[in-house]
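Input.
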Amino acid sequence: MDLYTDNDLETTSSASSPHKITPEVQELLSRVPHRTVTDVLIQHFFTEANWIYEMVDPTTFLERYDAWWSHPCRIVEDVEFAALLLRLCSYTAQFLPSQNYTADTILGASLSTIRQECDTTANALASTQYLKSSPTSIVRIHQLFFRACYLKNEGDMKGSWDVLSEAIR
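Output.
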C-alpha cells in the first residue's frame, strides 16, 4: 500500500523565485505520508504528546492542517508547514505503540519506517535553499523545536542543543 501522495505542486526551475516551488522541494513534498497516516499521527500527538510542552495550539494547527491538505503547496509558508507536519509526525511516532494505539504499523508501514522517513524528509526540506533563503517564521522555530525534541528522545543531546541554538539564532 502506498503511504505517500503526490501533491499537485506548482513548480519552476528558478530557485530564485521565493513564491514558486522548486523541483527539489516538489520531490521532497511528494514524500509526505498520505493523509490517513498523518491523521493518525496528528491525532495521537494532540491526545498523547502535546501536553509535554504545549507548544502547538490544537485549534490553530488543525485549521492550518485542513487548509494545507485542501490546496497544493504554492508558497514558502506552505512548505514550512509541511516541514512542521513531518516533524510532528516523526516526533509522535516515537511515542507509538502506546496504550491507546497498540499497533506497530499504520496502513501496513512500520512506525519506525514512518518515523525515519518523516525525519529524513523534514531534514531535507529544512536544509533546502528554498527555505533557508526565506525569512524566519514562528512555524520554522516550531519545527526546529520539535527536531530538538526528537533528537533528545533519541538520546542525541548534543544534536538537540545544536538545533535549539539554530532556532535561537
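The longest helix spans residues 76-93.
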